[in-house]
């Protein structure tokens, strides 16, 4: 878990960056198939998706997911196992982000009109959840937590005086 704003920013950048890139690639490929313009379409959709995802993560979904987790789900046993806290928050984050970003994707594609909007949203939501949840739990989450852990270890080592300094 991030301990300060700097760690939160780095953790969110890694998490959102990887998730948005893979999910953008997945959704663009699902929409247009493998074509000559696929790479360009993925790269052109990525920046706006990343900005929206970071804003949602930091200002909306993140606070709600953490609030729900600590108020209703995380118990005393789970507090002793930090990995369970991370997994719980990750699952809630994926549910919230898939809910919001599926709507964003439909809006960007201009599919917010028509008689089948609920069917389109439901289809998009479930297909995004099927990819995003394992992506988060198996690949992106461990990568982001690993980088955060290394960052926290480096900070801890800097904060602790070395034995050589103590002898002086």
From TrEMBL:
Keyword Nucleus annotated: no
Membrane-crossing residue ranges in chain numbering: 9-26, 38-61, 82-105, 125-148
InterPro entries, per database record: DUF2798
Keywords: Membrane, Transmembrane, Transmembrane helix
Name recorded for this polypeptide: DUF2798 domain-containing protein
Organism field: Lactiplantibacillus daoliensis
